[in-house]
Design a protein that fits this description.
Chain A: InterPro entries: DUF3311. The complex is a heterodimer of chains A (74) and B (486). Chain A has 74 residues and is mainly alpha-helical. In chain A, 69% of the residues lie in helices and 5% in strands. Chain A has a domain of 27 residues. Chain A has three helices and two strands, in the order ααββα. Chain B is globular, with a radius of gyration of 22 Å. In chain B, helix 1 crosses helix 8 and helix 8 crosses helix 15. Helix content of chain B is 73%, strand content 0%. Chain B has 20 helices and no strands. Chain B has a single domain, classed as Sodium/glucose cotransporter (Up-down Bundle). Classes of the chains: A mainly alpha (74), B mainly alpha (486). Chains A and B meet through helix 1, strand 2 and helix 3 of A and helix 5, helix 9, helix 11, helix 12 and helix 13 of B.
Chain lengths: 74, 486
């Protein structure tokens, strides 16, 4: 089912760490970036960064398995 | 002026729904419910984001931050964001299962995989229990929007207008109507959120002063810890993980034309969230600028009224209104299909579309009546839908990966999960902020796999994930291969 471990690490592992593991550690800091509390800045930053991770998984690893005939019958 | 602009944009949306019908020669039930599984990635993208970013984005989200502080913001942003990486891997399996079983509804996938009509019924009833609050969630928001237009309109009148427009989208073009209206809805919703967010930042003379004022007015609103943080994080895990597996979302994967379309459309969905910073600015602006708003759900529109000219308020309200009505339309279609195809046995195929439209009308009237008589805070209703719907996740996991889980075990797990979640919700015991749905899901999972292990039953079809992905139809000269049940 899974053809690439890297696809899973980049497409799922990294975003999960960013969204689920990191926030408790930055929830109470007084630091701001561009005036935005750091927690919110962090979440905002991960909107495009999550797309980048998924983009790497799709274009770098998974896409070829869905678009080429081989594998369909293996 | 506000009401006029609003009405014009609503009329435009109905025009677009009519456009969606053009060119479809035979509107059979498969066309009506899943568009004949023909959507390319961009249409799937708009249908899916159209469903995800409901009226809650414009009203419930700012209202939640305003009423409940930063932890609500973290929860809302976190669970949607987490849903995409999970969905990137799981949503194609949902599509593959629907394709393998030629299913047009979620209960059909469950019934056919586990070979059990009873299980199909359980899932059909569970889906409806989860979908009704989701529809009600939209109605609550629509009441706020329509009453904020400045025309004298009763709550009953407001929900009836919303229900009628939702019915029109569906009656005209089924799921195609939803997908096409989603374009209009997204355009106005994005515009509305950005305009209000920018107006809030300008009025506060910059982002730094905006948050500084909010911190000064209510320090606990900007930072958090303890129980609120635990609740936010456990809810992110629960709702983010189960997002694509709940009956209010999984059907929107079905109209895709291929697994590649499902996967590639998910890649760009997080970018769509770039509108949320503007909603966050608006919410924190309101914390200091409008400290005494009685109904938190109305706070976003209140800012619009205070800062924008009337015609622009109409545009903002239309964005919110379309978001609610479109999701309402899709939800009612979803319920109508389940009633016609799964609850009522043996409705002949050629009259299923007629019966679905009738069920849609009945649901809309019933939900409208319920909303008028039992109002509630929007986010509470949203949670309720999630507590029930995400319990289906164990069934999906079994369909994807398990060889030995049988209908009785999966059914017992899901039913127990739903009942436990509702019981915990009703009694609200002190659990240190841990999301009760997550606890129920744990029990559900243990029962599903434990019972299957202890009392092996009839083995269902081979798990979905062991079959190869169906290739994209975009490969030239190559018909879509059937997925084998090997």
């Amino acid at each position: 089912m899974l053809r690439s471990r890297w696809s899973l690490v980049i497409g799922l592992g990294i975003p999960v760490i960013a969204i689920v593991v990191v926030p408790p550690f930055i929830a109470n800091t007084q630091v701001t970036v561009f005036g935005i509390p750091f927690l919110f800045f962090w979440m905002f930053a991960w909107f495009p960064l999550t797309s980048v991770c998924l983009g790497i998984s799709w274009f770098g690893f998974d896409r070829r398995h869905y678009l080429t005939p081989d594998g369909a019958q293996s | 002026m506000t009401a006029l602009v609003f009405a014009l944009i609503m009329a435009l949306s109905i025009g677009v729904a009519i456009l969606a019908r053009v060119g479809v020669r035979r509107m059979d039930i498969k066309q009506f419910l899943v568009a004949g599984r023909s959507f390319p990635p961009f249409l799937l993208f708009f249908l899916a984001v159209g469903e995800v970013y409901s009226i809650g984005t414009m009203l419930g989200f700012p209202g939640g931050i305003y009423g409940g502080g930063a932890s609500y913001g973290l929860w809302f942003l976190g669970y949607i964001l987490l849903a995409y990486p999970i969905g990137y891997f799981l949503a194609p399996l949902v599509w593959r299962a629907a394709k393998r079983y030629d299913a047009l509804t979620v209960p059909e996938v469950f019934g056919r995989h586990f070979g059990s009509r009873k299980f199909e019924l359980v899932i059909a009833i569970g889906s409806i229990i989860a979908l009704v609050p989701w529809g009600q969630f939209q109605f609550i928001g629509l009441e706020v929007v329509l009453q904020g237009l400045g025309v004298p309109i009763s709550p009953i009148g407001a929900v009836l207008i919303a229900a009628s427009i939702a019915f029109l989208y569906i009656a005209i073009a089924g799921v195609r109507g939803s997908a096409f209206v989603a374009f209009v809805k997204d355009a106005f919703m994005l515009l509305g959120i950005v305009v209000v967010g920018v107006a809030a930042v300008m009025s506060a003379h910059g982002i730094s002063p905006l948050f500084a004022h909010a911190t000064a007015a209510a320090p606990t609103h900007v930072h958090m810890g303890g129980v609120a943080l635990t609740f936010a994080m456990t809810t992110i895990v629960y709702q983010g993980f189960g997002f694509y597996l709940q009956p209010s979302v999984s059907p929107y994967v079905f109209p895709a034309k291929s697994e590649a379309a499902v996967k590639s459309s998910t890649v760009f969905m997080p970018m769509y969230m770039l509108m949320y910073p503007f909603a966050v600015f608006a919410a924190f602006f309101a914390v200091s600028a409008l400290p005494n708003t009685k109904n938190p759900n109305g706070v976003f529109l209140n800012i619009a009224h205070d800062l924008l000219p009337p015609w622009l308020v109409g545009v903002v309200a239309a964005g919110a209104g379309l978001a609610g009505i479109m999701v309402l339309a899709s939800t009612s279609l979803n319920i109508g299909a389940i009633v016609t195809r799964n609850l009522v046995p043996n409705v002949p195929a050629h009259s299923q579309r007629r019966w679905t439209v009738l069920a849609v009308a009945i649901f809309l009237v019933a939900a409208a009546a319920m909303t008028t008589f039992t109002p509630a805070l929007m986010l509470t209703v949203l949670n309720l839908s999630g507590y029930v719907g995400i319990q289906f996740a164990t069934g999906w996991i079994a369909i994807f990966f398990a060889r030995k889980v049988h209908a009785f075990a999966a059914g017992t797990g899901i039913v127990t999960g739903v009942l436990l979640a509702l019981a915990l919700y009703a009694t609200s015991p002190q659990l240190g902020g841990i999301n009760i749905g997550l606890i129920a899901l744990g029990v559900n999972l243990a029962l599903t796999f434990g019972l299957s292990h202890l009392a092996p039953g009839r083995t269902p079809q081979a798990p979905i994930a062991t079959s190869e992905p169906a290739p994209s139809v975009s490969v030239p000269n190559r018909p879509d291969l059937p997925v084998t049940n090997a």
